Each structure stands twice: as structure tokens, then as C-alpha cells.
Amino acid sequence: MVPMEKISPKKATRAPRLSPGNGGRGLVSLLSLSLLAVWICLACATGRPEPIPEPGTPSYKEAAEAAFDSAQTAYDRRDYTLAVERFERVRNRYPHSPYAALAELGISDALFAQDRFLEAADAYSTFVSLRPAHPQAHYAAWREALSLMRQAPSDLWILPPAHEKDLTHVREVIDVLERFMFEYPESEHVDEARELLDDALSRLARHELYVADFYKRRGQWRAVVFRLENVLDSYGGLGFDELAKTGLAEAYLKLDDPRPSDAVRILKEVLSGDDLDSDIEARAERLLSEAVHLAEEQSRQGED
After folding, report:
1. Residue 10 lies in a domain
2. Separation between Cα atoms, residue 183 and residue 194, nearest integer Å
């Protein structure tokens, strides 16, 4: 970061010297004094930036701390616009102070608090990139993922379900969370990150199930197989296995080149599970009967 130059107050402009003239001396003097008063008031109103103490001196640290406390006070009062302005002042005027990094986080947090999640995610990401060894880098990495997740589609009742929307931000969340958990395994936010990762993966799994159902309704069974196999391979253990396996077994039976043996195998896996949903259980039993019958037919045809 380029050091800021020390700001020196400008030299005071000397007031015009009053000179007596022939006649009207009192009027000229009064007018000159009035102009001088206006000039002084304008100077006081506009003000000049206070000089920045030399970096490394006690006064520099004290000035940075006071400026940061002022910004934090605005943040605590939820005046986030003012907080951002004051945090930026700390960052720009005291770049050699430890408060500069904290001010960057303060800006990020204030953006997050205003629901400006994409801007917040970018700010947190920049912090991690520029300050990877900072003690709060793990916090910034975690908040980047949380910001992206807040930006991702939700399940508000007035909108289509999240699994029907663009999930680009959810995929970004997964990448950020996996990197976070790898780079900061001791972070206090790891447990929260795991929960958020499961949530993000579940959203993608539901999206795959939605797309599989879309193809099923159009009789495109190979596409159904591809999607449901992906659910099991990429999102297994998230609570969708029985539903995906049952749907996959049905797709195997509907293919132009049916695979009843594979259907029988995975349906037996489904029915051997505990606490099986009653609807899934009934569907699996019906499909298993069809699969066994079709497998026997294929076996007889093979003998012929």
C-alpha cells in the first residue's frame, strides 16, 4: 500500500492591508473589515483536514484508534452509511495502522447489514486475497460464503421454488466453503460452514431432482437416469437417496434397452432401509414387482 503523504495546513492568506484614501476613509475601512470577516467565516466553515501524525508515533496510533471508534459507534447505532464513510476514512488516512484492516472488515460488515450481499462478498474476498495471514482472514472467508448464500434464491412463497431458479451463487458458495474449510480447519466458524455447505448441496440436489422430473414428464428417460445418478454420486447422504434410487429404478425400466437387474438391485437397497417414507415404500414395492417380472422375461428370452 502506498504511504500517504503528510498533509500540511496551507499557509494562512494575509489579509489585505488597509490604505487611507482622499475622502471616504471610514467607508473604505468598514468595507474592508466586512470582507475580512466574511473570509474568516468561510475559512472556518470549509475547514481543512487535520494533519496526519507521522506513522509509528503514539499520536498516529491514537488518532487512528479514535477515528475507528467513531466509525464503530456509527455501526453500532446501525447508521451503516455513515459507518462506511468513517471506516473508509480510517482505511485511507491511517493505512499503516492495524485499524486499517479492521476498517476494511467494518466496511464489509456494514454492506452485509444493508443487504448489499454481492458487494459485501466482494469486499470480504478482497480482504482475504490481500491479507491472507491476518487473524481475521478466516472470518472474512466465512462471511464471503454467507454473503453469497444470502444472495442465492430463496423459497419465498411469492416466488418460484429455489430449485427452479438460477443457482450460480449456490455453486460459488460451495467453492468458497470448501476452500474455507480446507484453509481454516481450526476456525470457530467451521461447524456453521458445514451446515451451510449441506444446505447449499441440498439445494443443488433438489434442483437435479426437479430437472429429472422435468425430463420424466417428457419421457426422456436417459436424461432422467443421468440426473438421478448424479444426485446419488454428488449429493449422497443428504436425505434424497431413497427418492433418487426409486426414480432411477423406474427410469431403468423405461429405457429403450431396459435394465431390470439394476432396478431390482437398487430397489432392494431402498426397501432394506429404516424409517422409509410410506409413499416411497409403496412405490418401491410396486416397481420391484415390475422389475422382477421384466428380469424374468429377459432371462427367458436369453434362453430362447
Report:
1. no
2. 14
